[in-house]
């Protein structure tokens, strides 16, 4: 690979974590209940993670010469949305997960009511970050809010979670439809948000969306593959959990080899979408390969 | 009163309900799970209610000559936020309410997971409405998103709900602090959002905020009074529920007479804030009086 992608991800994850912490505690409260809420939000937002969505915002903005500090608020906002979704997904009424990234999930570390509110708080505050004076000009801010809320809302991520909980016929189309909303929509939003900050053309935004759509689907297929091939320790969550829950996965439908083929095809499509950006897109290309080849 | 405020509220509530229905079903899904999500969102958004916050948006925008149709998307968005908060507040882990406005709450009519997602969907989609192309110019849209997300987020409504669930010392200051966040912040946002659409000056926005702060606190004091003086039937929820739950209320702290005095004082303050708007503000003045004198 042309870039040290793993190291770049690690460094940027650290920068994003610091920005998340600053944001959650930006008005650190001296009221005990509010401080507890902020701590629960931090617990849900700061437990590690690849910070893939923020990385995409930073890198796609970088294609257009946008410096990291300028893309960072949008990167922070989308990660707040991602983290809220994990907090709510872990709730007993949803996936009922006691742990997340090897730590107690928020409703286990605090309680259910606090987990619901911490999620609501992260979700709502993300839009405050995007529109805070000084972060973005009004036209960019409004476009970012629209892109992020579309990706995260009932037609996007929330709708995907609903389809995942109440699946219909488990055809390949339906599995792809769930994935496209549940994880794909927010990954697309991330890539497009970077383009919006960089004032990309409509054609460039379409290419970024196509890149992210392929990367997002490949990411999910790899997740499904790892769920059946990796140990719980390597994953930081119970292995085979999807299968046990009777959930639709790419592996249950395509088989392991078929799923691996699909990853290869999607990675090629991701590269093709980036073609006009040439050498500037080396990191995004490497990212697609790294995500396809990852083992956890 | 100089206006038929009750009739105006009723008419506008109907217009807002229709706008909410159009918004929730704007992309009516043919995927069963997504249609079910939209129906659950509609159940939570369309069960009646005074539509006080949308009314404030429409009326404060009207002070500046903004026509109803132009303020309607913002009015719809803030009601989506209000309704999401009711859906989540009713959850078993929160207030555990089986009914809302005489109907089954969303988690009773559907299930807990759907109620969580319906709330998340309404909350997120509200920001899509504010930034949808054609609704507002970018500077107005960005300001609306900022005002609404601040009022609804961890420093506003979500924080107030957290303080309500985990109260500290039940002094008058603390009760006021809970109210100011839990219900006051969104009522303030409503009044200010109308001003933003009307391109009000900073001084005018401050006056609208002061008006709404007084009306919002008076509204809560009256709620507390009604909770101990009215029957369950008249309220549409169990009477004395606050007292039973050991919650801090204005009545438990100030007594009935003290609470009534406070309503009078706050209504006077609300009128004073409107003084510079003269006759244009007659409906807002009548609203303050009507809310103070209401019996349900």
UniProtKB/TrEMBL annotation, chains A, B:
Organism: Parvularcula marina
PROSITE patterns: POLYPRENYL_SYNTHASE_1, POLYPRENYL_SYNTHASE_2
Protein name, entry field: Polyprenyl synthetase family protein
Keyword Transferase listed: yes
Pfam family, one: polyprenyl_synt
Cofactor dependency: Mg(2+)
MF GO annotations: metal ion binding; prenyltransferase activity
GO cellular component, one term: cytoplasm
Family, as annotated: Belongs to the FPP/GGPP synthase family.
Keywords on record: Isoprene biosynthesis, Magnesium, Metal-binding, Transferase
UniProt record, GO biological process: terpenoid biosynthetic process
